[in-house]
Amino acid sequence: MNESLLFLIPLLPLFCALINIVFGMRLPRLFAETMAIIGVAGAFVLTILLWGYAEGEGTRAVLFTWLNSGTVDISFALNFDRLAAPMTLMVTGVATLIHIYAVGYMHKEEDYARFFGLLNLFVFAMLAIILADNLLVLFLGWEGVGLCSYGLIGFWYQKVENARAGTKAFLVTRVGDVFLGIALLWLFALTGTLSISEINAQATSISPGVILALTLLLLLGACGKSAQMPLMTWLADAMAGPTPVSALIHAATMVTAGVYLLCRLFPLVSLSAVGMMAITAIGALTAIYAATCAMAQREIKRVLAYSTMSQVGYMFMAVGAGTVTGAMFHLLTHAFFKALLFMAAGCVIHLAGGENDIFKMGGLARRGPKELFWVFLAGAVCLAGLPLTGGFFSKDGILLALYTHPDPFYKVFWLIAILTALLTAFYTFRLVYLVFAGEWRGTGKPHAISLQMRWPLWPLALLGLAGGLLNLPAFVGGSEALHHWYGALAGRLVTVSHEVEWMLIALAVLIVALGWFAAHWRYRNYQAPLDNAAGRFLLNGWYMDALVDRALVRPFAAMARFCSSGLDRSLFDGTINGLARMVSAWGTLLVQLTTGRLTTYLSAFAWGFLILLGWLLLKLVNGGGQ
Amino acid sequence: MIIPFGHALAFAAALFVLGLTCVLLRRQIIMILIGVEIMLNAASLVFIAASAYWQQVDGQVFVILLMAITAAEVAVALAMVVYLWRRKRTLVADEFNGMHG
Amino acid sequence: MLAATLLCITRRNPVHAVIYLVTAFFALALMFYLLGAPLVAAWEVVVYAGAIMVLFLFIIMMLGLAPQEVPEGPGWQRWGPLVLLSSSMMACTLLLIFQDPLASKEIGDFYLAPQALGEALFSRYALAVEIVSFQLLFAAIGAYILGRPLPKGDN
Known about the structure:
Largest interface: B-C, 67 and 81 residues
Oligomer: heterotrimer
Shape of chain C: extended
Distance between the termini of chain B: 53 Å
Shape of chain B: elongated
Number of strands of chain B: 0
CATH topology of the domain at 1-67 in chain C: Four Helix Bundle (Hemerythrin (Met), subunit A)
CATH architecture of the domain at 1-67 in chain C: Up-down Bundle
Structural class of chain B: mainly alpha
Helix content of chain B: over 70%
C-alpha cells in the first residue's frame, strides 16, 4: 500500500463534508446521513488498515507544496507516527459512534445537511491537527475546529442565546489562538522551519528564557481550546449545542487538542522546568475549580461540561509532570467514558421530555429502558475512578506521576489532584442519584429514543470499563502497552516501589468510597438544592463570566461605542458633512447673484470693466515705476 | 480744428461714462436703450477723431456703418419693447426676472 | 453737449430725456463737422436724431409711457454707488489716456469732402455696405415678427 493513502484519512471526511454542504439538501435524507457516517467510518477503517505505517519512526507523507518562497518551504504533509496513530483511531472511532447516535438524535431536524456537513468538516480539521507534520497544517486544523465548533454550538441559531454561546466559544478560543500564532512565528524565526520533528530536534539549541516564553505561549494557546483557566468561560455555555456536538467536541476531540499540542511539542516544552510547573499549575487550578462548580450545577450537560474541564486539567497536570503516556492514556479513556456520558445524557433528556434540570428528574431508572441506567452508571464509575475501571487506571497513573516527581513542590499538585478526585466522585454520584434514583419529579412526556441512539452507547461503555487494559501498570501484572508503544515519545518513565504504589491505590479507593458515601448520604433521598450564597457562587462558575464581562467585555464595548459614535459619527462624518454643508452654504450665497434681473447683470459688467481698467492702470504704474 | 488728440478722447470717454451711468441708473428699458445710444455715439466720436488725426477716411466710413447698424438694432429693440409691454404691461427691467437662479 | 447729455440721463419723463438727447446729438454733429467730417455730421442729424430718436418717441407715445403725472425716478441708493462707479471709471480712463504720449499730439487741419467719402465707401467698403444692408433687412423682418399680435391665452 502506498503511503499516500494516509491522506485519505483526513480527506475522506472532508470530501463527505463538502458533498453534504453543497448538495446535502437536495439529496434524500438517508443518503446525506449515510455519506456522513461513511466519511468517518471510512477514516476509521483506513487507520486500522494503515496502522503498520505508524510503527518505528512513523511515516511522513507529503501531498503538495503549500508555500514555497525564499527560505520558507512548507508543504501539506502528514506525520503518522506512534503518538498520532492511537489518537486518530480514537477520534475516528468515537466520531463514527457519535455520528450514528446523531442520526437518531437529530431525526426531527430539518437542516440536516448543514449539521452533518459541519460534523464531518470538524472531524477533518481535528485529523489535520493530529496528523499534521508541520505547525502550519496544525494551525489550519486548529482554526478549523474553532470554526466548526462555532457553527455547531450555534447550530440552532434562531434562538439568540445559542448564537451567542457559539460566538463566545469562538472568541475565547481565538484569544488562545493569538498566543499560539505568536509562538508559531517565533519558532519559525528561531529555527527557520515549522516542521514539528525539526523543531523538536532543534529544541536544545534555544536559550532557556526563550523556551520558557514559548512554553507559556503554547500553554495559553492550549488553554483556549481545552477550556482551561483563564480561557475556560466558553465551555459551560457551549452546552447550548445539540448533544452529539457536545459529545464529540467537548468530550473527546476539541478540548483534547490542547493536550495533544503540548504532547506533540513535548521535547520543546519539557526543557523548561518553570514552564512545566506552569502547565501543571494551570491544570491543577482548573481541575479543582471545575470540580467545585460541577458540584452545584443544575443542568445535566453543564455538570458534564465542568467535569470535562476538570479531567482535561488532569491531562495538563500529567503533561506538566513529564509523562506523555499518562496524559494520552487519560485522554483516551476520558474520551470513551465522557462521550458515553454525554450521549446517555442526551437519552436522559429525551426521556425527561426535553428537561435539562436534574432536580426535575428522578426515578428514570424505572421509567426508561433498563440499559440506559447501566451504561450511564458504567460511564459514571469510570469518571469517578472506581477501581478496575479504565478511568481508575488512567487517573491513578497521573497521580503517581505527580507524587513521584523529583521536584517536591509537585506534592502540592498531587494533593490538589486527590482533592479533586474526591469532589469528582461526589458530583458524579450526585448526578446519578438525582437523575435515576427516587421518584419522578418532572412534568414532561418522554420522547422516544431510537435504536441509533441506544446501541452506540454499548461499545463505549465496554471501552471505558476495559480501557485500563491499554496501559495496565506493571505491578498488577499488566504490560504497560501504551507506554511501550510510545517508546521515545513517552516522556518520563514513572517507576516507584511497590509499597508506595499500593498505598496510593488504597488512597484512591478510599477517596472514591468517601465521595460515593457523601453523595449517597445527601442525595439518595431527594433533597432540594441549597440556595445559599456559596451555592450560587459555584453555580455561576465562581462568577468568572461576570469578571470577564466587567474587566474585558464592557471596556471593549465602551471603546467600540466611542469609536463608532464618538470618532466615526461625530468626528469623521461630522467633518465631511460639515464640509458639504459649508460648500452648500457658499452655493446659496453665490446663488443670490443670479437674480435674473437685467440691471444686476449690467452692473456686473460695469464693475468688472472698472476692475479691468484699474488693473491696466496698476500695470502701467508699475511698468512706469521701473 | 486743432486740439490735442487726448482732449477728444477724454471727451468721448466722458460721454461714454455718462451713457453707462444712464444704463445702470435707470430702470425703464427705454431709458436703458437711450443710454446705449449715448455710448454708441461716444464710440463714433472716437472714430471721427482718430480719422482726423491720421488723416484717413476709414474712421468716417466706420461711423457710417455704425449708424446703420444702430438703426437696425434700435428697430429690433423697440419691437421687443413693444412685445414686453404687451406681455407684462410694465417696462421696469427688474420685473423681468424669470431667469433668476 | 455734456450738459445736454447729463440732463438727458437724469430726466424722469422719458419724452424729456429724448428731447435732450436730440439736443445732444445736434451738438455732436457740430463736433463732427469741426473734426472734418461734414457728411457724417449731416447723417448724424438725419439718421440718429431724425429717425432713431423719432422712433423712440413713437414707441413712448404709443405705449403711453409718459403720462401726465411723471413716473418715479431712480432712488437715492442706486444713485450713490453708481456715481462712485462712474467717477472712478472716468478717473481711470483719463489717467490711461493721458499717460500715453499719443494723447498730446495735435489733430491737424482735416476736411474730408463727401465725394472722397463716397468713393471709399463704394469701392473699398462695398462688401461692408452690402452686409449692412442685409442686416437692415433682418432687422426689419425681426421687428415684424416681434410685432405680431400675441396668440390668445398666452401669458
